[in-house]
Amino acid sequence: MVRYILGKKKINLRKTKFLKKELLKPTKIYVKEVVNLIKNNLVNGCANITGGGLGDNIKRVIPEGLTANINLNKIKTKKIFSWLKKNNIEDNEMLKTFNCGVGFCLIINFKNLKKVKKNFPKNYQPYVIGKIIPGKQKVLLNGSINWK
Length: 148
Fold this sequence. Notes:
Structural class: alpha+beta
Strand order of the largest sheet: 6-4-7
Order of helices and strands: EEHHEHEHHEHEE
Oligomer: single chain
């Protein structure tokens, strides 16, 4: 039986076959795609979104004087995150603990978006969730995720 413990609440995953299958899926590794982007000078920075979530991982690659302005409304979540959210986990905790469907972030020049997309299979197409702007704060999370 798989259980996830968050604070004092235990979430039992035994009852849902879908979640078991989802948790056992291998993580998509983007090495091939990212190496190709680097070779073609199409990437300015990248971050694997792991423990610490979106904010903590992206801020590591943002230079001083710049801010990653992330629009949470743009994030496409997967069913497993919707299910977790239904178990009364607050948005801030979800964003700190999980990648919420954003497994990897690329920082690119927007004019190269079509070229970048050509490097990914259809089921892993990148999409825009924010932009880099001048600022003192490394990451700004605006809006809210639609947990459907």
